Amino acid sequence: MNILLVNPPNCGRSVPEEQYGMDSIRQIFRGEPLALEALAGNLTDHAVRILDLKVTPDGLDDALAQFQPDLVGITGMTCEANAIVRIAGQVKAQRNALVVVGGIHASNDPDFFNVPAIDYVVVGLGKASFRDLIGQILATGNGGGIPGVAGTDPGKRLQITPRVYDATDLVPERPPAYDLVAANRHQYRLETLGLSMGFAITAFGCPHRCNFCCIEALTDGRYLPYPVEAVVRDIRLLGDVPVIRFVDANTFQDVARAQALCRGIAEAGIQKQFFADVRADMVVRHPDVMREWKQVGLRAVIVGFEEIDQLRLTEMGKGCRADDYRRAIDILHELGIAIVGDFIISPDYSEHDFAALRRYIRETAIELPILSVLTPLPGTPLYRTMADRIVIHDLDFYTLTNAVVRTRLPEKDFYGLYAELTKAFHRKPAV
């Protein structure tokens, strides 16, 4: 079977840019489509191509005409959901291939894709279930009944056969098909830092329950780590890519495994730099682990601070104490590990809140603050809590840089302060 896997183009819209001419808020990082590479790695007995429309936004027509796929798989985030439906319609009009949609939005709001142009929706991890679906279609002509997959039936609710996710869904013995995006490798860069970067899976899922987070639906709340030897193998497969970004919501969640991976990298003689996600409370409890990782090349960590106010942290279900943040920052800086700090700006922010966050970032000297707007993504607990406050329902605006609920400040003032804060920290950091 000819299978085309499609990564949607950059398609999010911006209220501050479109309505107020503020263009300093946009933050775009073009990373490789690892989810599609992972799917392709488990389809070795098929002819598979990956089309990254973030690199070649006008490439779909040619890919359909030249490759003539029998099946097209599309993945995407919430802000790409409308684009996915449009791509599916183009596929049906030009090729009439089977269309399968998966990814984070499909996992949290699968009924959004219950439309005529889409044939199947994959919910949660798809590396195993997508292959199961293809196998059954080839064998019987119908993909019904596959756990984690639903056949579309427009006008009715999707009937999804439940799937209990475990380590077998990771199919760790089949590495990502990195070779399918080799021609685009030079495009996958973090321009803010001037770094070429490759992605390696270390785990899927997260054991924590932050109310704004959409990750839970991928694994039904389970945390599923990759075997150490598979991670080391994938790092090697990335060849001479100098920086590896571990794809994991919390790379050091299991301290013993984090140490085992650190030793595995050292024993393999790998000389690269690494970016990893880490919780502040873990840094405070285990500075020795961070020290070990620094020795094997840990260059920077992504820390989800989210908020600096303890009450707001508690309301988010974050489970961290604001008091731990400064201790974690001091430990990381003493070790020479740079910090990419994720902060979430509430639509309820006042001028005082913006000023307090600016002071905090300056005082702590966080190398690269990433500032997003609290967004109730469909399928999350936050969405259910804030549903009656939502004033923007067009998912194109769910980029995490738009306030889709009414702001406490006048909207123009809110975006003005957000833009000023973003611009203030858009220097080239020493990460």
**Overall average pLDDT:** 93
| Strand coverage percent | 15-25%
Predict the CATH topology of the largest domain.
TIM Barrel
Class per helix and strand makeup = alpha/beta
Across the major sheet, the strand order is 7-8-11-12-13-14-15
At the fourth level of CATH, the homologous superfamily of the largest domain is: Aldolase class I
Low-confidence stretches: none
CATH architecture of the largest domain: Alpha-Beta Barrel
Portion of residues within helices: 25-40%
For the largest beta-sheet, the strand count, sense and barrel status come to:
7 strands, mixed
Q: How many helices does DSSP assign?
A: 16
Total tally of structural domains: 2
Coarse morphology: globular
Distance between the termini: 44 Å
Radius of gyration: 21 Å
CATH class of the largest domain, named: Alpha Beta
Total strands: the figure is 15
